[in-house]
Structure formats: structure tokens, C-alpha cells
UniProtKB/TrEMBL annotation:
Keywords: Signal. It comes from the Bacteria. InterPro entries: DUF4124 (IPR025392). Residues 16-65 form the DUF4124 domain. Pfam families: DUF4124. Residues 1-24 form the signal peptide. The lineage of its organism: Bacteria, Pseudomonadati, Pseudomonadota, Betaproteobacteria, Burkholderiales. This is DUF4124 domain-containing protein.
Amino acid sequence: MRLLTNAPALLLASSAILCAPAWGMYKCVVDGKTSFQETPCAGAQAQTKLKEQYAPPVATAAPSPTALSDQEKLATAERERLRRDAEYALRDANAAVSNHRAACDREQQYILGDKVRSNNNLAGAVRDQSISAEAQAAATRCDTRARELLAQVESARKRCDQLGCR
């Protein structure tokens, strides 16, 4: 019980002993007498080195191999993220072109559907001409937007090729 009350002192003393540097220890036999000392024996008949002198390892400023591998892992993950983003951008650009073309086709069918209902007279001819002009304007708008979307596809394809997409 008394040992537990002195536990901090005992812990401190044992820590001091364990943390003390280990110096060289020599066993010397001089004229049949054995002695122990920290320095090599002078004129001894027998000398035994009992302990090596302890030298703590020298800290180096070079990064550890695990730190480099962590940096490499981060760089690899970043490249993979960029590649995946490029693939998604290319996929989305191609989908935008397809969706745009489908929307343009639907618009043309809607506009030209009115032409069927035109009468075969002067009013019908004027109406047909108006419908044709509207269809032509819609086709021009669609073509302009399609060119913009195709330029985005080409840009996304180049970026993807640079990053090594599948």
C-alpha cells in the first residue's frame, strides 16, 4: 500500500534510470583483481568490454519514404479525378449534342406539321411560305447551336486524350 502512495516518485526514479545514457563499461583484471570502469583498461591483463556506448540516432531533414508515397498517392488520386472529370465532361457534351438534335427534329416536325393543314389556295400558299421561312429560321438556330456544342465536344475530347481517358 505504501508503494502505491510513492508511485509518482518511483515512476520518476525508474524513468530517470531508463532514460540515462548507457556509457561504455569495461571489466579489467589487473594483478588478479577485477575492476569495472568507464574507460579502457590501462595495463590490464584482461579487458572485456561489457557495454557499447549509446549514441542516439541523428535526425535527418530528408522526408521519410512513407511521406513521399503519401504525396505520390495524392498526386495519383488527383490525376485520376481529373481524368474521370474529363470523361464525364466528354460524355455530357456528347449527350448535349444528341439532345439538341432531337429537340431540333421535334421542332421541325411541329412547324412542318402545320403545312399539311394549309388549303390549296392563295391564302394556303402564303401560309406555306410563312411556315417554310419559320422552319428555315429554326434550322439555322439549331445549326448554330449544334456547332457550338460540337466545339465543346471537340474541346472535351482533346482534354480527355491529354489525360488518357478510355
